[in-house]
């Protein structure tokens, strides 16, 4: 081993001990279903409102898509509910709930949730639209208190909804939102909703929201039957007329490998939504499911692939990174596997970008085993500048020897500054598969990563 290689090895070995935080489980929020009906799957999806202060979650939006919704004195099993929680004195309380108007049995409102700057998007993917089974529906809500510090709790009103007239479209299976919200002088917000079963190929629908504006901006669809285009979606708002859209298609074939999966970049510009580029895993193989989850920020695109094979280990899953090209398109920038991964971990089932620090992400691995099979885990990945590039340092978050079961932890995940909120929809708290949200935080000694 030459001197340069030895030096690089020593530096890389030291980084995990000097440049990242130490995480610990600090709280479990049990299902908020007052009837404690088994199987509500509280925590299946998560969204966080971080409007006031980058290090504080003002409100946590938790989807329970199998919960029973009550409307006009009638109960609708599996209609789904989204719980809005705020923190008072270290304790999380439900301040309000959201459900569909005129809910349907097994429509699963809350299967997907996205929140930013007062715009809340909720998917209801199994809604039956006038005889079209599982057409799906997506709801758009406004928190009209989000920009007023005198009102710390959200105040929700419904803005609009949309559905489609196709069987098995599952509109609302994925949702995303990005932008400044309905603020005077702001860029507004773009929201996207995936319908991965529409016409067999899948599509994504885009809406725009600003002061006195609620505008449908069109749709874009996949190319081949079975692609499941729209299974995941992410949006980056550039200004009031332009966005970058990333769409996961985990059922797509690559080089004859079925379900290798793919991801696609679209652009909305000059009033038109059009395809811009295609992304694929390095050396794609059968059952990679590349595109299980997607995310985008100003630095790169992140694509989860819950079936990717870690060399010498097995199908742990991963998140692949892509950076903008010098002229056009995106370049492969690396692939992040779980450090302690094992076959069946399903890493990349969810991915969340750190909204507070503009660096790092959390990767959900809901199939991972610990003391219990399928208990799940989350990896926090932080970038470290290294020799003109980036070295990613990962740390696993799990329940360790705390009380838990086959919780599916990491099915939904949100990371904000030094807090990770991980959905555990199969947690038995208090009833079977009622679900929970587990909160992890950095140790105070390491909270800033020794940066100051």
Can you walk me through this structure?
With 452 residues, this protein is mainly β. 4% of the residues lie in helices and 45% in strands. It contains 1 helix and 32 strands. It has one helix at residues 3-18, and strands at residues 23-30, 45-49, 59-64, 69-71, 74-76, 81-88, 91-98, 112-116, 119-124, 137-143, 156-163, 174-179, 189-195, 203-210, 213-221, 232-239, 242-249, 262-269, 272-279, 290-296, 301-305, 309-310, 314-315, 318-324, 330-336, 350-353, 361-365, 377-386, 389-397, 413-416, 419-424, 436-442. The strands form 9 sheets. Strands 1-32-31-30 form a 4-stranded antiparallel beta sheet, with no helix packed on it. A 4-stranded antiparallel beta sheet has the order 2-3-6-7, with no helix packed on it. The longest helix is centred in the first third of the chain and has 16 residues, at 3-18. The chain is globular and about 55 Å long. The two termini are 35 Å apart. The model is unreliable at 1-20 and 445-452 (pLDDT under 50).
């Amino acid at each position: 081993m030459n001197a340069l290689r030895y030096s690089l090895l020593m530096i890389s070995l030291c980084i995990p001990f000097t440049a990242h935080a130490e995480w610990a489980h600090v709280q479990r929020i049990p299902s908020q279903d007052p009837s404690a009906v088994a199987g509500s799957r509280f925590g299946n999806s998560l969204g966080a409102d971080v409007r006031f202060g980058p290090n504080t979650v003002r409100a946590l939006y938790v989807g329970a898509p199998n919960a029973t919704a009550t409307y006009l004195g009638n109960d609708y099993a599996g209609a789904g509910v989204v719980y809005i929680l705020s923190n008072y004195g270290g304790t999380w309380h439900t301040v309000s709930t959201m459900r569909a108007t005129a809910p349907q049995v097994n429509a699963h409102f809350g299967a997907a949730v996205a929140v930013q700057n007062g715009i809340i998007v909720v998917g209801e993917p199994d809604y039956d639209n006038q005889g079209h089974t599982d057409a799906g529906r997506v709801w758009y809500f406004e928190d009209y208190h989000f920009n007023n510090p005198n009102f710390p709790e959200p105040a929700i009103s419904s803005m609009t909804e949309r559905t489609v007239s196709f069987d098995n479209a599952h509109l609302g299976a994925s949702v995303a939102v990005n932008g400044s919200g309905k603020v005077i002088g702001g860029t507004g917000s773009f929201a996207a909703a995936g319908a991965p079963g529409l016409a067999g190929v899948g599509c994504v629908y885009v809406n725009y929201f600003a002061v006195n504006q609620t505008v449908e901006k069109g749709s874009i669809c996949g190319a081949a039957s079975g692609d499941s285009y729209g299974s995941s979606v992410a949006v980056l708002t550039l200004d009031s007329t332009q966005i970058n859209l990333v769409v996961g298609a985990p059922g797509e074939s690559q080089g004859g490998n079925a379900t290798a999966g793919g991801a696609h970049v679209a652009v909305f510009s000059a009033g038109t939504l059009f395809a811009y580029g295609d992304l694929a895993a390095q050396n794609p193989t059968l059952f990679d499911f590349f595109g299980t989850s997607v995310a985008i920020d100003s630095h790169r695109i992140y694509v989860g692939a819950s079936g990717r094979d870690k060399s010498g280990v097995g199908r742990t899953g991963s998140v692949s990174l892509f950076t903008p090209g010098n002229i056009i398109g995106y370049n492969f920038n690396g692939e992040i596997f779980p450090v302690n991964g094992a076959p069946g971990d399903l890493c990349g089932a969810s991915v969340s970008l750190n909204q507070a620090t503009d660096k790092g992400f959390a990767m959900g691995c809901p199939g991972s085993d610990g003391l219990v099979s399928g208990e799940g885990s989350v990896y926090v990945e932080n970038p470290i500048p290294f020799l003109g590039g980036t070295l990613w340092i990962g740390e696993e978050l799990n329940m360790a020897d705390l009380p838990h079961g086959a919780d599916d932890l990491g099915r939904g995940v949100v990371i904000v500054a030094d807090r990770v909120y991980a959905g555990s929809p199969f947690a038995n708290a208090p009833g079977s598969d009622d679900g929970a949200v587990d909160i992890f935080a950095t140790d105070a000694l390491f909270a800033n990563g020794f940066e100051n």
